[in-house]
Amino acid sequence: xxxxxxxxxxxxxxxxxxxxxxxxxxxxxxxxxxxxxxxxxxxxxxxxxxxxxxxxxxxxxxxxxxxxxxxxxxxxxxxxxxxxxxxxxxxxxxxxxxxxxxxxxxxxxxxxxxxxxxxxxxxxxxxxxxxxxxxxxxxxxxxxxxxxxxxxxxxxxxxxxxxxxxxxxxxxxxxxxxxxxxxxxxxxxxxxxxxxxxxxxxxxxxxxxxxxxxxxxxxxxxxxxxxxxxxxxxxxxxxxx
Length: 241
Ligand code: IPE
Ligand code: IPE
Ligand code: MG
Hints:
alpha/beta, Undecaprenyl pyrophosphate synthetase, globular, binds 3-methylbut-3-enyl trihydrogen diphosphate
């Protein structure tokens, strides 16, 4: 044991994506309002970012707000917008110092001009950092991403015979980011919920019943250990027969 940052397997995923689910139930189980769960979830995110750097993960994508989450009560939606703004205000300096490069996937337009600008400033400030790329999926939906890619391809006058997998990749919000190796979903739900539906074609899944605010470094290490045991075949035959 000794080194608390090591995982038992040598195979560390290059790109981890997390569906940070269960904030509401975490709060409800404590008799707290749902927004208290989102706050606790955000504090946890800070810890998981640091752990990701320590584990040697290069890309971390977090699902923070889906295109379907607009359907929630107005005060919850507004609370989530405030939390994003707060995180940028309070954490950006420290994240920058840690060498985290911030990126965003999804559509920023609907966030309002002030928040939109804050996100763009954060991306600009951190663009040269290279310890960890943190992709924040906010107002993100996998179907919306594909619709957006098709619109951009048509606008650019792409010819049908030019369309292939690599070209589609280039038109997605995640252009330039490798596909996720491991997708973690907290709170036990066995569904995709419109997350990285194109990019997850060959991702490994890890679902834990733990609610997101309780998902700590030890749980994270267990997910990475489980990943290290997987035999990824990509439709071919095992490399380790
Ligand atoms: C995930 O937690 C965070 C967001 C979707 C914004 P939820 O808010 O979905 O929590 P549950 O699933 O209701 O417990
Ligand atoms: C997925 O969780 C979205 C985020 C974690 C941001 P949801 O709670 O919105 O998903 P469903 O409704 O359970 O499918
Ligand atoms: Mg949920």
